Amino acid sequence: MAGRRDGSLMRDKGQSVRRSRILVAIVIGVLLGCVFAFLFPHGLFISDRRKQSRRIGKSDLKMGISSCESPERIDMLRSDISSLSQRNSELSKQVKDLTEKLRLAEQGKDHAQKQVSVLGEPHKAGPFGTVKGLRTNPTVIPNESVNPRLAKTLEKVAVQNELIVALANSNVKSMLEVWFTSIKRVGIPNYLVVALDDEIENFCKANDVPVYKRDPDEGIDSIAKTGGNHAVSGLKFRILREFLELGYSVLLSDVDIVYLQNPFDHLQRDSDVESMSDGHNNMTAYGYNDVFDEPSMGWARYAHTMRIWVYNSGFFYIRPTLPSIELLDRVAIRLSREKAWDQAVFNEELFFPSHPAYDGLHAAKRTLDFYLFMNSKVLFKTVRKDAKLKKLKPVIVHINYHPDKLSRMKAVVEFYVNGKQNALDPFPDGSSW
Ligand SMILES: *[C@@H]1O[C@H](CO)[C@@H](O)[C@H](O)[C@H]1NC(C)=O
Ligand SMILES: *[C@@H]1O[C@H](CO)[C@@H](O)[C@H](O)[C@H]1NC(C)=O
Asked: How far apart are CA 212 and CA 166, in angstroms?
């Protein structure tokens, strides 16, 4: 998997190197022309003067050979030069735009191509069992003016227009350290810490961790500095919006997570939101039919209900599409009006269907493999007690079910990285309150 990613990276690089070589050649050509025009207004070879002036073009012919040395001629050359360099910069801009378009096209072609027929002309349904509805929404056109400074940072940090993003203030400093150490160990280059205070910004810089500190913003910042867990969680939906507006896919990550493999090798990228689950087995993670029994109804005592354990709003991959941005807005608006848990709101907005006086969100969603993107209930209740499951290496482990986060994170590192087989043993399945 890693090889494939690298391969396409190198391909991109190869193309842009070729393009920039052409660009450099054009620029050198124009510059050389300017220099020679200044140094040798009569042409390089005096004997060739007639031929030369014929080649120079209509405006020069009008001047005639006698006026070659006049100041007008020099002015004219100067204006030629300036119009040439203007044209040159126009061309370089075009090259840049086209390069960008090509890159976007290549990135999106897999899913996009599959859906051309759905988005395009109206069409007949096709044979039984072959029909597929729209799943992968098109990405928005990036708007750099939303935040030029962030755009510059992301250009440097992101790989294939995607990156891991975590928000952190100094309350979570020690967990953040375990977090970025695990990311570095795996060798993931595209991650960014959004520092909510100076201490975290300096801490990241000192540790060579890509960091971004937002411009001061009243209201938002008072939450950022002093806020507990849930208040900061609400803030993240506001901040995430800018990343999506700039055209980036974000893997939003809490800091109570240990990385053991590169998550970008394990995503499908076919949905607006691809999230880890709070579920602990196939049923709870992927959905099941829960039968509700009401004996007094007699013949109709059984009512079937659709159930799924919530998506974890501390670890999800979100593509820069309109439904994704609508989701972030809806969650942020509700959190600003109600005293609610962001994860509950996130799931209600994602899953509740439209109904009278309510328009539901039309977002595509995918649940990540709960053994690869493992929550701490799965690890401590099931996996560590099962000889076979113990051998599997997850992509991440999220200590979302336990309050003693730091010590369990360190134990996860000991167990999966340092191979200490009994590292997980001292902990109870659940917390004792
Ligand atoms: C781009 O972002 C700027 C700044 O937020 C905004 O004023 C502008 O309307 C946006 N452009 C479009 C086309 O949405
Ligand atoms: C759970 O689902 C996976 C496929 O998603 C399947 O391979 C596995 O057998 C299922 N496990 C159980 C216990 O049903």
From this structure: 10
CB distance 144 to ligand 1 below 6 Å: no
Distance CA 135, CA 140 (A): 15
pLDDT per position as a tens digit, 270-293 = 999 999 999 999 999 999 999 999
What SS3 class is residue 399? coil
Kindly report, residue by residue over 80-109, the tens digit of the pLDDT.
888 888 888 888 878 877 876 776 666 556
Better-predicted residue by pLDDT, 428 or 68? 428
Residue nearest to atom 2 of ligand 1 (CA): 146
Which ligand is closest in space to the CA of residue 284? 2
Ligand showing the shortest atom-to-Cα distance for residue 288 = 2
Query: Any residues with CB less than 8 A from the CB of 89 and at least 6 apart, and which?
Result: none
CB-based burial, 177-198: b 16+ in 10 Å, e otherwise: bbbbebbeeeebebbbbbbbbe
CATH T-level assignment (fold) for domain 144-282+311-376: Spore Coat Polysaccharide Biosynthesis Protein SpsA; Chain A (3.90.550)
Q: Which two tokens stand for residue 121?
A: 């002309």
pTM: 0.74
| pLDDT of residue 46 exceeding 60 | no
Residue 288 C-alpha from the chain's centroid: 31
Domain borders along the chain are: 144-282+311-376
